């Protein structure tokens, strides 16, 4: 086995001592194997943080190197999974070494965030968004965004990990992509995400009508929507269950009466929160 294969194998299995010895003996950290993989690709893919540190010290530019499929070490780290967390520290190290690696695309136009979203690695997704918010809704060769990838494997009851990754992407820049259309494609499976979307993104009346009704979780977004637009708040209420609308009407009348009696006017956000509570359980929007 030559030095290229030796150091790649040591990096893949996480043998820091062997990697250190091979580097001292003249092995190159920037020399690829037959598949274009550097030792850094292997260490990043298999989650060996200590080896990643050694290799970045030896060859910092390796953080930008692509294998024969166009995958950088950051692609590999973003797609790895460890109890749903992904290689968070490794992603952080690679972004420190080469922030623009977050913008690099593989052969099918996937940025690292596409792969992190597919695996629902929420923490790496957040790091990648901070490094390159402009790729939050970039399309791959098939026209799919990270949000579409993140929701692609959610079925009848999406896991909280899937939902948290989706919320992370929706918070990034909802106006930059057709988020509403993506959520509508997934129907009831993404129903809990509509509240996160409408809290940040103004919608037309036609767009509000496209949201499946009843959508009771929308009550969580009422404070934010009411603060933005009374008209939109009315459209939101129209997508709730009838019992929620009745509660809101009763609460609104009571609130108006109380303000009139006390000659006080509550801020729109506070009024919205009170009304939302009356419509049903109000969970905090993230």
Main attributes?
17 helices, ANK repeat, elongated, repeat, 286 residues, 55% helix, single chain, mainly alpha, Serine Threonine Protein Phosphatase 5, Tetratricopeptide repeat, Ankyrin_rpt, 2 domains
Quick overview:
The chain is mainly alpha-helical. It contains 17 helices and no strands.
Textual characterization of the structure:
With 286 residues, the protein is mainly alpha-helical. The chain folds into two domains: 1-132, Serine Threonine Protein Phosphatase 5, Tetratricopeptide repeat (Alpha Horseshoe); 178-286, no CATH class. 55% of the residues lie in helices and 0% in strands. It contains 17 helices and no strands. It has helices spanning 3-13, 16-24, 39-45, 49-58, 73-79, 88-97, 112-118, 122-131, 146-151, 160-172, 179-185, 194-200, 205-210, 222-228, 230-237, 242-262, 268-279. Helix 1 packs antiparallel against helix 2, helix 4 (49-58) runs parallel beside helix 6 and helix 8 packs parallel to helix 10. The longest helix has 21 residues, at 242-262. It holds the Pfam family Ank_2. InterPro entries: Ankyrin_rpt, Ankyrin_rpt-contain_sf. ANK repeats lie at residues 35-67. Keywords: ANK repeat, Repeat.
